[in-house]
Amino acid sequence: MAVKITPDYIDMLNRAIEREIAVSLQYILQHAKMEKLVRRTIPENILLDKTTYDAVGKFLREISIQEMKHAASIMERVYYLGGQATTKSGKPAIGDCISEFAKLGVKAEEEALTLYRQIIETAGKMGDWETRELFEKIYGEEEGHLFKFQEYTKFQDEKEAASKVPLPEWRKIYTDDYFTLLNKAVSAEITGIIQYTNQHEKAAFLELRMKNTPLEAITETNKAGVVSKILKEIFMAEMDHLEKISERIYLLEGEAAYKPDPLPVVGDTAQDFLRLDHALESSAISLYRQIIAEALKRGDTTTRRIFEDIIIQEEDHFWTFDDFVR
């Protein structure tokens, strides 16, 4: 390594990863909450094909994915520098309306820009030009997010009239213990997103560094490269699952969780990744079957169907990993 890397420098980069994971979760959960907000808008909006809510919701989903890509890029750089990329996340701040989403977004982006200026300056002093260039690119994108959130702070939220209608009988099935069960699924999906993203970047690094056979050298790939591609596809599916489950929770007047459970575990080799992910998918399938059974018992058809669709994909992920670990 041409640049002498210190533990403090890796810690600084890992703080950036924690921040990127946190805001990615923040924005995707805010996006999921948007469907609930749309249903609260004034009756006149029924006549419109699109409202401000649709525009903000689209923006939040797009930047959530972009922020997770930022986290992935920084993880990749940490591994290249010989460090271990973190799986920790800062605490997302969700809010309850567009103006709150915007103010929280402004705060998050301003804090990110402050940290990234520090990283850019430090990387320059150390002669780590690649890291400096990476964060200069990320800085420009975060600045764009900041300006957009500043526009939305001017948005006047529509007031929700207090309902005088008693809670209908069918709504009483959504109890606290039911939301706790659904949030176990949210936490499991967050674990998968963080774990697979981190492993994808570590696998990409191992692909570059480890060619153990003539065939691997000729094809310019290895097992780590194959696993890296698999994880990228599965990561996107898990983001979609997180969005659907949290959106359902918000529509039912609950609050979505934001902490991973179980904690993400990365491993050291491609075979470690496959073994860990195989186990993670297995536990998720067991949990989702439990949720389907509970939803069926309560007569919650919509939630049952959501998880029936998700479990088909999770079983496909399980068998994909199973092909490699048997």
Q: Sketch the major β-sheet.
A: none
Helix-strand category: mainly alpha
* Quaternary form: single chain
Count structural domains. 2
Q: Assign the CATH class of the largest domain.
A: Mainly Alpha
Q: Tally of extended strands?
A: 0
Strand share of the residues?
A: under 5%
At the fourth CATH level, what is the homologous superfamily of the largest domain? Ferritin, core subunit, four-helix bundle
CATH architecture of the largest domain: Up-down Bundle
- Measured between the Cα atoms of the first and last residue, the distance is 37 Å
SSE run: HHHHHHHHH
Q: How much helix is in the residues?
A: over 70%
Shape, principal axes of CA atoms: flat
Total number of helical segments? 9
Query: What is the CATH fold-level name of the largest domain?
Result: Ferritin
Average pLDDT metric? 89
Rg over CA atoms, rounded to whole Å, is 21 Å
Low-confidence stretches: 214-220
Give an account of the 3D structure.
The protein has 326 residues and is mainly α. The chain folds into two domains: 1-158, Ferritin (Up-down Bundle); 169-326, Up-down Bundle (Ferritin). The protein contains nine helices and no strands. The chain has helices spanning 7-38, 52-80, 98-126, 129-152, 176-209, 214-219, 223-251, 270-298, 301-325. α2 crosses α5, α3 packs antiparallel against α4 (129-152) and α7 (223-251) packs parallel to α8. The chain is flat and about 70 Å long. The two termini are 37 Å apart. Residues 214-220 have low confidence and may be disordered.
